[in-house]
Amino acid sequence: SQQGEEDPQALSIQEGENATMNCSYKTSINNLQWYRQNSGRGLVHLILIRSNEREKHSGRLRVTLDTSKKSSSLLITASRAADTASYFCATDAGNQFYFGTGTSLTVIP
Amino acid sequence: EAQVTQNPRYLITVTGKKLTVTCSQNMNHEYMSWYRQDPGLGLRQIYYSMNVEVTDKGDVPEGYKVSRKEKRNFPLILESPSPNQTSLYFCASSFPGAATDTQYFGPGTRLTVL
């Protein structure tokens, strides 16, 4: 399987702290995306980084991509209770998508 | 409102009873896809479609069928469901001509096969 993996599987932090989660994948990619899922609901797109980009920002989100290591990280700064969710990375190989196993983030108020 | 809709949202059925889960999008997206989500396994792609009448297998297509007769609809068919198909299913679609771009997800269908 070409599925990626997120690390850690679960993360618990205090409100206001930063949260960092990592994603590793196995094959060459065009893009890498991060999605958020609230408790069994549909996934919501957060940010996309292309294979020729190394870093991207969107509001409180910062994504890095290291294609030589086949890895990416998602940093959420100044976390809020509303950030509590599962976070998934997704990579593409041709026309197929591969999602990681997810990081469950809990932000304690 | 731009959205992906799925029906039904919840379904309990018995082994072998054919069922269809519908998916519809109103964004004129060419790319549509079905995923299943299981604990500890993340989301796995079942089938995807690049356009009308064009469908391809994803990672876990066994036991499933799809069709794409219209651009907006992409139903998932389980001809003879089995308990190992108990899962949470998501439909998703992407912008025209951008298969690797942002995907918009439906709310999910929770299927239980007894």
Distance between the termini of chain A: 38 Å
Overall radius of gyration of chain A? 13 Å
pLDDT < 50 runs, ≥5 residues of chain B: none
Helical percentage of chain A:
under 10%
- Identify the overall geometry of chain A: globular
Structure notes:
The complex is a heterodimer of chains A (109) and B (114). Chain A is built from no helices and eleven strands. By secondary structure, chain A is mostly beta strands. The mean pLDDT of chain A is 92. In chain A, 0% of the residues lie in helices and 59% in strands. Chain B is built from no helices and eleven strands. Chain B has strands at 4-7, 10-13, 19-25, 31-38, 42-51, 54-57, 65-66, 76-78, 87-94, 103-105, 109-113. The model of chain B has no long low-confidence stretch (mean pLDDT 93). Chain A binds chain B through residues 1, 3, 30-31, 33, 35, 40-45, 48, 88, 90, 92, 95-102, and chain B through 4, 31, 33, 35, 40-45, 48, 50, 56, 58-59, 88, 90, 92, 99-108, 110.
Topology (elements, then pairings):
The complex is a heterodimer of chains A (109) and B (114).
Chain A: E1 5-7, E2 10-14, E3 19-24, E4 31-37, E5 43-50, E6 55-58, E7 61-66, E8 71-76, E9 85-93, E10 96-99, E11 103-108
Chain B: E1 4-7, E2 10-13, E3 19-25, E4 31-38, E5 42-51, E6 54-57, E7 65-66, E8 76-78, E9 87-94, E10 103-105, E11 109-113
Parallel strand pairs in B: 2-11
Antiparallel strand pairs in B: 1-3, 3-8, 4-5, 4-9, 5-6, 7-8, 9-10, 9-11
